[in-house]
């Protein structure tokens, strides 16, 4: 195959990309080396190594940015010869989703991560201060590991081939071996697979960059920690390190919040947090860095807890790498709803994490004894003591989550190492499991966050302060005790643990408000911690209130009334178009659907009524089906939410008739439909299955939405009435046949309430309409204004049209065309028609274009003009028809197309969750801003 | 002894205690045979039988979806899920169901699917002709 000259490929981006990857890897490695040499230098006389490391990192950044630009370039130009482009984009993918497509793949998301490391590192390169070599040392190593994920080198070892990295700029024909590559112009035959429609939304555009900036930013406190341990300079970094840790906690927290909001809004997981391993994997590092921020504050203010700060910052980054391992190695298996599948880089990920674990342990353990500590331990009444306790509680929380989340890892290791055939364990009910333990963590944190703020560093003047402290805390405890019980009563699901957590939450809110007012005197600028802790208290209450009071509007009303003894949840109800149904306090009506872009939106109207059936409120929600790019299949469903200040009503479509799910399933349904023939005489009725049909007569202008009749088309429909003994309504239908451009089209009618479909038998067409050759024309001569009778028809020539414009006549140059305007009366029915047959003189030859009155069965031609006698010759043929009966085909069992099943849930107090979380993050941001202003 | 050491020890003791108590929350994947024997609520992991009927008809019951699963011991059983049919269920291979056996039918209230990632297949997407 190597000899084939492929047509249309653009090869230079691949070559350049490969160079960039190698350059990026090598320069990152060299940066670390140079920075290390610089840090190891005893004298500061020569700056060569330092300069080299900055130069090298700049080169690394340029190579990385170029690689990213290249991939955008090949994606933007739909170069499907590249495997990554083929996987991620397609012709139909709108350009605005190119970013989403870029980081939807593993390689792209590694690059996004590298991008942020490069950007953060360049900040230090430009600043070029004391910390630059320390930061570049670690960033260089991290970036080298990440770049190695893109190398795409295959190493044969002991009979097996090991893969190092996966190169995103490989050609598809180098990745997949397929017969299609025997054709030189294979490129004209292939198309991209495109982005999963679930990922085609704005969240996918903004969430990953923020989350990965969060990931990348944790490397900075880590770099400070490693660098200062390496240089044995344990204290001077604490001020700057804190700023970066605050930045990291803020960004990572924002990234997680966006993920939660996405899960809540778009992905139908029924909530903002499901304790999915992928969610936990990014939450845990955040908890640890928040703990680190607290111990860093202690260290900076009192000199205690420096070792703990080191441990937390080192651990944060290791946990980020561990989360990468969990989500990208495929080890989570069926325990996660949204992990990546494996890409053959498992061992490389293990090497990645192992390296940084060993590096951290090495520097921490060899330096531990020389890290300054205080001989005197923290006073029991000091702020630092309780802050440390709080940090330990956070650490404890993170440990519990990590252990539970790591269960699949444990299973794999146990099975592989000491117990082949071991059947892995799983958590039976993850949400309940995590909630059960984390609830108590939250209680402790809430109590501590309120109390420790009132304490002072070093327990300053405790003896005189004691009374004041007791008073403030006492008041807050009292408020919590009084307020928590009524609040607890608002929960639908009440356990004593919930009361305990409510108490702690209210205490956190009241004590922090008290602190803000009485100690900070309302100075919100100094209140970063208050803001965060207040937010935490609100979040706790919001979580409880929304979680415990969440309920389905669409509960089975019969189950509620005790009519069916179902113990099941039954939160879905079926809606039939235009038939409102009552559910929990609402009437819901499915009014119809409309297509917008690749969405089919369903209009669902909710009407709330009181006991006397008085309308209280009405609103419409529009959940939608997302079709794939070719519109052949529904690939996902979008819920829709009605927002109130105090609750959200969340409606999703849970069921749709199977045959409507894709073009294929529709075809299967139609192919397997069983038809039964039925002949009905005029006005006669007959029954089939449990309904009866009656033939009311034929129509030549059938009324159906899908029929668009042109003047030259022929159509016939049967007017049918259908009745069901158990239904009040009579259903009318006009199944029809249409002749368009020489083809006969079937227009059957489906009557959803009866679950049936009716079609006209095609033989009717030949029975009603006679072919030209079989017609028996009779000539008549008419003068203008004259009336003649023929075959029970009276015909009057009322005038002429000399500017003929009719679709059945195609004008040619030199034509003389005249239409005779006739008034035709069918004497049997008394009906009057107008007819315009056309006479043409073309190159001295006479032609006629006939006019056909379908209903009367009259064919009329305008044959001759005698200019001298002013008489016109028309010829007329009348069809022999038997319209006394109809042949139909009926499919008596057709699945309905006018139904959907929906689930509608109320989340009360959900805004408290968002408010609390945003306040926590805002507090981190305020802390960051205040610290920047002070330097 | 320093207070912090006491606290550390306390934390470790509580931690180990919690982990021990948490082991109650853990369970192994079960089989249909075990579900019949114990009559308890279990998690069964199995492979979806795609050639057997998968029935979800919102017209009849929007809260019932039934399918057949073959467990790790090769026994196949009808599963009735008391929920709507999850999107793309037909595409999944491994399925984990949680529930219990009731008169020969596995009544499940939870289902987890492991889909072969749709966008990971080693195949080439051909252009639509015409």
Structural notes for this entry:
The complex is a heterodimer of chains A (935) and B (130). Chain A is an alpha+beta fold and 935 residues long. In chain A, 45% of the residues lie in helices and 22% in strands. Chain A contains 23 helices and 34 strands. In chain A, the strands form 7 sheets. In chain A, strands 6, 7, 8, 9, 10 and 11 form a 6-stranded antiparallel β-sheet that branches. In chain A, strands 15, 16, 17, 18, 19 and 20 form a 6-stranded antiparallel β-sheet that branches. In chain A, strands 24, 25, 26, 27, 28 and 29 form a 6-stranded antiparallel β-sheet that branches. The longest helix of chain A is centred in the N-terminal third of the chain and has 29 residues, at 12-40. Chain B is α+β, with helices and mostly antiparallel strands. Chain B has a domain at 28-114: Nucleic acid-binding proteins (OB fold (Dihydrolipoamide Acetyltransferase, E2P)). Chain B has a 5-stranded mixed barrel with strand order 2-4-5-7-6. In chain B, a hairpin with a 4-residue loop joins strand 4 (65-71) and strand 5. At the A-B interface, helix 14, strand 3, helix 16, strand 5 and strand 11 of A face helix 1, strand 1, strand 6 and strand 7 of B.
List keywords for this structure.
heterodimer; A: 935 residues; alpha+beta; 5 domains; 6-stranded antiparallel β-sheet; elongated; B: 130 residues; OB fold (Dihydrolipoamide Acetyltransferase, E2P); 5-stranded mixed beta barrel; 2 helices; 7 strands
